Amino acid sequence: MAKPIFTEIQSKKLKKLGILNSFDLLLHLPTRYIDETKIELIKNIKPGSMHQIEAKIISIEVSYRPRKNLTVYVKDISGDLKLRFMNFYPSQIKQFEEGKIVRIYGEIKLNSFLFEMIHPQYEFVSIDTPLKNFYTPVYQATEGLSQKLIFKLVQKVFEQEDLEKKSPDYFGNLYKEKLFPSLVESLKIIHKPKKEYEKILFDEKKSIFHQRLIYDELLAHQLFFRGKYHENKSYKSKPILYSDNIHREFLNNLEFELTNQQQSVFTEIKNDLSQSYPMYRLLQGDVGSGKTVVATMAALQTINSGFQVAFLAPTEILAEQHFEKLDLWLTKLGIKVELLTGSMKPRLKAKSYEKIKNGEAELIVGTHALIQEKVDFKFIGFYIIDEQHRFGVKQRLALRKKSLLNKNYEPHQLMMSATPIPRTLAMSYFADMDISIINEMPPGRQSITTKVFSSEKRNEILVTINQHCLNNNQVYWVCPLIEESETLQLETAEKTFADLSNYFVSHKVGLIHGRLPTNDKKEIMEDFKNNKIKIIVATTVIEVGVDVPNATLMVIENAERMGLSQLHQLRGRIGRGHKKSICILLYKKKLSDLAKQRLKVIYENIDGFKIAEEDLKLRGPGELLGLRQSGLPSLRIADLERDHTLLFTAKKDADSLIEKFPSESLLHIDRWHRNYKDVGRS
Ligand code: ADP
Ligand code: MG
Hints:
By secondary structure, this protein is α/β, with parallel strands linked by helices. Helices cover about 40% and strands about 20% of the residues. The protein contains 26 helices and 21 strands. Strands 11-12-10-13-14-9-15 form a seven-stranded parallel beta sheet, with helices on both faces. The longest helix has 25 residues, at about 210-230. Residues about 675-680 have low confidence and may be disordered. The protein binds adenosine-5'-diphosphate and magnesium ion (MG). Adenosine-5'-diphosphate binds near residues 285 and 290.
């Protein structure tokens, strides 16, 4: 048997870095490189950058007051330099003997007109000690696993004779056609690049060898999600056929006409539903673009064919709003709409369960409670998931699994998202779904004017608000998001509430925040909707979906702290009625450059997709997609912003590779498996 490459202790330590096998170790790429291939003269080195020099020790000085300090004076043919150590062992003092030659690597600092290096890396050498002929890789290290040891272990892995055989290039000639180097060659060179290469390409992960690996990682990502996409077509669903009558009746009752885009998106969904495999579609549309009515028409088609529909919302307030609206629209057509939320009284809940089970409830609107074990549908045919970005990938995959376990057919799924994402990016990143987009607003919307003020102008704004309320309009006052502390956020909201209540004696002020009991929240929102509360002070809980057309003024405090998509979502709460709306963004001085740019974008743009594109430029796709919260597999090497061209290439290649090389596609995903184990690679 071959001797294991790592000792047991080493294996344990490697595990801390997420490295489970020798291939994982090879994928533990250097974060940067040190150039120890040349010696520079002291007179030529510049403060602020890294240099290697070779010099003779002239003298040393040790002092313990005011602070522990070991100073070593060195000299080469061009000048003098001071090395300074604040942490050192007594044995180190002895090492630095006068006359010895020392090779030093570090950053030069100018300290009271003298050049010095603090805690440089050093090594004692003789005049003829050869220089390195490769750039030294720097790894993320951990206790007991130093840079040097990682380097040694990596090189040990490369010495395995069968490495090439164990790590072949899959997919026929794919890489040759792309002029990519082989996998093993790429790894070898990245871990030990010869000095003939341009160092900066390696530091910035732009070498062709890095490109090869980045492509591979992104390809694994696409193969995984496109695999899911194709796998989906092998599942069975009940085809749900469209019949005109009920839809005509629905549309006749509706107080508005569908926009062209609403119609064409519905056509896409209508066709999907009639297939014998499950629909798996994402509907993207800006806040207020009218996604709900489209989803309702799809629900109608399903119910009309004799199946139940579940409509999931991320919060109770939103679920109830949907319930009210759908109940209003659909009861007229003889359809039974039911509500199920976590905070309902047990007795009512039990009743709901019962109706869901015996099929009396046809459309069930609810929160997470709807995907719990206890809920047993008679014949669920279709899930609608609103604000899908609030549910993670895991939840959405779990939902599929659950419905699959229960019966031997799978319900259709429509996900809706009001976080606009540039189309190309969405198509790449949500590669397991089909995508529909609504990017026009229903007609008759009043424009929203956005104003940006320093928070010092708060008092002037109070005058505007007063006038606004006297004209029988309502106001949102959004308190700052304080990420570090929910308690602090609450305090701010309560203080603002108290201030505004004192100031506006004749207009009722309300306060709503995440910590309130659900029933209180409901009551307050109800009072706001009915125009009893004129001014509502809110934390960012109102971000999602709230629909109060008479609210036409919004003040957002500390707007500079919020992300673009959040600001856009918040602003989407106003401009919903027939009156002109105003959004006032307050900021605290002094603004950072990024904050300035963000406020400029939100000030100049109202179109969510345009804002998303700008956001992409400012923050990159990772942040934009909220990858961290979404539970999507994290990427080890690729950076979606830097590498988006490779992402599109990988996306383009994935479908044909799955078809031509199905088993190699799975092997390729497995090679990168660490990224996928969290999302339940099956
Ligand atoms: P969102 O896409 O943010 O979920 P909604 O579905 O809540 O948007 O729609 C926002 C508002 O616009 C609702 O009051 C809805 O009834 C209304 N609406 C939807 N479609 C149209 C339309 N074609 N014409 C006029 N109003 C519409
Ligand atoms: Mg909505």
